[in-house]
Amino acid sequence: MAVAQSGWKLSYSTSWAVEDRSQHMNRASALARLRALIALKGTLDLDAYSPPHELLQILPPKSTIRGSDCGPQIGPNNPKFILGMQALLDLIFAVEGSVSEAAKFLGLSTGALSRFILSNDCLRLALNELRFYLVI
């Protein structure tokens, strides 16, 4: 009797590892990382910067620029979270990887933005990859 094995493997560098034996979990995680990296293709005009609605929706309620019209904060399980994550990574890319500079644009303290980034593994990994890219 033959045993067949299947699974998704997506790697762009040795820093990414398969997180789970579940095909669906690995696929979702790989797609999230890929979308985050695709987000880095755009450029931002920091002089006229205004955070997009998608980014405002994922920000913690502490943010001084997050109005009541954004609705409740959305989390990583919401499909729209990735759009906010992309916008955040675009901003951090535009400020050359500086979390403290990005925090100023978002009305957050550096610590609050750092805690937000560290609260989501996909976001943390994407930011580390971004910083590696900026160093090269």
Automatic annotation (TrEMBL):
GO terms for cellular component: chloroplast. It comes from the Eukaryota. PANTHER family: CLASS I PEPTIDE CHAIN RELEASE FACTOR, LD18447P. This is Uncharacterized protein. It comes from Prunus dulcis.
